[in-house]
Design brief:
This protein has six helices and 16 strands. Strands 8, 9, 10, 11, 12, 13, 14, 15 and 16 form a nine-stranded mixed β-sheet that branches. A seven-stranded mixed β-sheet has the order 1-2-3-4-5-6-7. 39% of the residues are buried.
Length: 254
């Protein structure tokens, strides 16, 4: 079975290929400085990892266009120094490697239009590619009944799956695939390297799309360094977890 293809979209590490478009989501540039302001002192390492991973992905893809599906930056109500520097540098990097850059507004992006204007880009609420509709996923559109595309692609959730090995839990980022109101839905992992994301087996979902779908029927595609691991449905892993560790109420995130 071809596990790198979901409803016609190709998994390429943390990105998706749809037609001539490469899609990534939830970079949260500037996250380290935001944490530093909170007294959590971590080095500013994420930007270099993002650039390296983008280079690795781009070398395996011939897509001419790129979509950033929301949350390019982290802070809600301001643009910190790290965000200014890294978002401008990142967009310049993308301009040197892609013909078109599409920015989609996420819930962390009230000020991203300022960055977009400075770099000559536009910010969209969603973006259509044939039968795919790309949107961040933090809210269900009020004009839902007018959507014609068959497959939704969202971010926002930052899904990961916790895999237990002895006493240790390892989280790996993952894609989710399922149905929402008679349409297909793909949930993408974050392109963020500070955290792995929310464990789909043990943490509540964030996106209203996932709160209104059959969560247990969602299929899990783990990704790690360009390898894809198909885990089946969430219900299957929850059953395995319960049978293997019947006295654990939840996994502990080390």
């Amino acid at each position: 079975m071809d596990y790198d293809n979901i409803y016609g979209a190709k998994i390429l590490d943390l990105a998706l290929e749809v037609e001539d478009h490469l899609i990534i989501t939830d970079l949260h540039l500037g996250y380290e400085e935001a944490l530093n302001y909170q007294g959590i002192m971590i080095p500013k390492f994420q930007y270099s990892k993002i650039i390296k991973r983008m280079g690795d992905i781009h070398s395996r893809s011939d897509c001419s266009n790129i979509i950033i599906n929301g949350d390019l930056k982290h802070e809600f109500g301001k643009i910190n120094r790290q965000e200014w520097r890294e978002t401008i540098q990142f967009i310049d990097y993308l301009k040197g490697n892609f013909e078109k850059i599409i920015l989609i507004k996420g819930n962390h992006d009230p000020l991203t239009p300022i960055i977009a204007k400075k770099t000559g880009l536009d910010v969209y609420p969603s973006y259509s590619i044939d039968n795919f509709l790309v949107m961040h996923g933090d809210k269900i559109p009020s004009d839902w009944d007018k959507i014609q595309e068959e497959t939704l692609i969202i971010g926002h959730e930052h899904p990961s799956v916790g895999i237990r090995s002895g006493e240790r839990i390892e989280k790996i980022k993952c894609f989710l695939a399922g149905e929402f109101r008679s349409k297909n839905i793909i949930v993408m992992p974050s392109f963020n390297f500070i955290t792995e994301g929310s464990d789909v087996l043990n943490e509540k979902s964030l996106s209203p799309f996932l709160n209104k779908t059959n969560w247990h029927d969602m299929e899990i595609y783990g990704v790690e360094n360009f390898e894809i691991f198909y885990f089946g449905k969430i219900s299957h892993l929850l059953k395995v977890q319960k049978e293997s560790y019947p006295y654990d109420s939840h996994f502990i995130d080390f």
